[in-house]
Amino acid sequence: IGDVESKAKCLEMDIEDSLNIETVMPLISEAPREKKRVLAEYIVLLYRSYVELYFTYLEINPIVVQSNTVFMLDLAAKLDSTAEYICNKYWGDVEFPPPFGRDALPEEAYIADLDAKSGASLKLTVLNPEGRIWTMVAGGGASVIYSDTICDLGGAKELANYGEYSGAPSESQTFEYAKTILSLMMKTHHADGKVLIIGGGIANFTNVAATFKGIVKAITEYKHQLLEHKVTTFVRRGGPNYQEGLRVMREVGSKLGLPIYVFGPETHMTAIVGMALGKTLVPKHAKSGTQ
Known about the structure:
Blueprint: H1 4-7, H2 21-24, H3 33-52, E1 55-60, E2 63-66, E3 69-72, E4 75-79, H4 84-91, H5 106-116, E5 121-126, E6 133-135, H6 140-152, E7 161-166, H7 171-185, E8 194-198, H8 208-221, H9 223-228, E9 231-236, H10 242-256, E10 260-263, H11 271-276, E11 287-288
Parallel strand pairs: 6-8, 8-9, 9-10
Antiparallel strand pairs: 1-4, 2-3, 5-7, 10-11
Helix pairs in contact: 5-7, 7-8, 8-10
């Protein structure tokens, strides 16, 4: 129809607004009288689906109404990939393209394959393979908070990855996830050494001890490389069996001589970011292992 912006009827809404039939009627004022009701009902339901299923864009052109039935002859749509953990069961088998216009790294593809085969959520995106700051965060919301905090404290250029593990992954799944991140960390050296932030909120049902045992197994496998690359690890977690999880993390640091700082839910979730970036002092009592 040419210039859509100048010719189409528009309805501006606030993000919290909802549609009803009366609100929609001005948009379809030129439609045949006998088709207005079905069109209005269709638009109301379409917008509800748009919101509930986290669409970011939806275009239907053309659309046909016949015998009180609406037919969509062509449709283009975009989904918010960050809502996958909410909408996956409704979206079905949706495959998102690799981020930032590049092909997925083998490690990213491996984690995506693990994720597809698991009832848990395992996500990994490499932002800067030569970065100094690496994260291994439990929970989609927590991963955003940790990344934002790193950037707020001036670490954006050194942030190496973004991702999360959640949904009660098993010890073996967490081991594979942790091992993949550690393998990426060890590909390049950094003059200032590297930091690994193993963070998360207070879990509701994830067995912290089981997931941490998987991470500890990976750390043990990479102990020599962690020392060689001067990696300092900061841990913060709470939830079911978190005391046991923190204990095994302290134990592996002491046993292997790795600098690992361990904190529980008494410490603010993002406090370890300031410590990792050298913005705040690290309590001596939290350290296990030796430099």
